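Section 5: illustrative case.
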């Protein structure tokens, strides 16, 4: 096997591997998250080795307590490698957007409720708006 043949096959294997499992993006958020994550533990290690003045001890303790959960969230985001988790995160975002749209539709339907405005009329208006939207999605706008 010649060197050029080997290099061609290496490139083909990389493309095939990336096609099967796409590489994780390396964007600014990942770099900042990694630096924050590592910096926190460097800070903790440094605090174990360096004598902290007594007047600064509460400040250091409070800062570590406040930053701990944030670093945990960053760590869980950085080490999440399962594609299923990525899909779940995307679907969760879509679900939250759908709930937001539903809330807007509910407010709009309640705003068009004829007087007297009470819970019964508002509930009927919301139900009618939901039925109309479901019919529109199904393709039966006149049903």
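Designed sequence:
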């Amino acid at each position: 096997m010649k060197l050029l043949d080997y290099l061609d096959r290496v490139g083909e294997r990389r493309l095939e591997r990336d096609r099967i499992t796409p590489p994780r993006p390396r964007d600014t958020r990942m770099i900042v998250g990694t630096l924050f994550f590592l910096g926190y533990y460097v800070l903790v290690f440094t605090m174990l080795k360096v004598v902290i003045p007594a007047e600064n001890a509460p400040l250091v303790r409070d800062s570590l307590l406040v930053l701990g959960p944030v670093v945990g969230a960053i760590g869980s985001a950085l080490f999440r490698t399962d594609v299923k988790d990525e899909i779940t995160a995307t679907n969760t975002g879509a679900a939250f957007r759908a709930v937001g749209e539903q809330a807007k539709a509910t407010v709009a339907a309640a705003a068009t409720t004829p007087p007297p405005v009470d819970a019964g009329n508002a509930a009927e208006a919301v139900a009618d708006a939901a039925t109309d939207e479901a019919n529109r999605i199904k393709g039966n706008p006149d049903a």
